[in-house]
Amino acid sequence: MSMNSNLEQKVTSAIHAFCEAAIEKSTFASPAKKDHQLHKIMSTAVNELRTFGSDGLSALKDIMQHESPHVRIWAATEMLTNGDETAKAVLISLAAEEGLLGASAKAVLNEHVKGRLRSPFSVSKT
User: Fold this and answer.
1) What whole-number distance in Å separates Cα of residue 99 and Cα of residue 97?
2) pLDDT, tens digit (0-9, with 9 covering 90-100), for 41-92
3) Burial track 21-46 (b if 16+ CB lie within 10 A, e otherwise)
4) Angle at which helices 99-113 and 87-95 pack, to 10 degrees?
5) Nearest CA to 36 among 126, 125, 120?
6) What is the dihedral of CA 116, 120, 121, 123, to 10 degrees?
7) Is the dihedral of CA 94, 33, 45, 5 positive or negative?
8) What is the pTM of this model?
9) I need a labelling partner for 105 at 20 to 30 A (CA). Which of 23, 34, 65, 117 fits?
10) What distance in Å separates the CA atoms of residue 80 and residue 91, rounded to the nearest whole number?
11) Residue 27: pLDDT band by 50, 70, 90 thresholds?
């Protein structure tokens, strides 16, 4: 990635905020108010990354390999909604996990197959 240092700092900051929130959120942060706050942080970070174009999406794609499965599932879901087919392999791997994380990855893949997958970070237009 060849970015100027100001853009690189902004991308790094957004990625850091996204990862921290995804890890703290885990499968569900309690109470629900906290869960919603963490999702909002992730959403803000993703929307900021979108404004950086290919540099932002490239950084989001990179964290599909993050050590935290919670970061991976959120990043892969967003990337799959952007047409990045490499995200499927990440989600298939996560779908093999036990519990809510695996079930969530299966649900994402199922929605994708049915053509109904939407970004978990977009404002609803309904």
Assistant:
1) 7
2) 999 999 999 999 999 999 999 999 999 999 999 999 999 999 999 999 999 9
3) bbeebeeebeeeeebeebbebbbebb
4) 140
5) 120
6) 50
7) negative
8) 0.91
9) 34
10) 9
11) confident
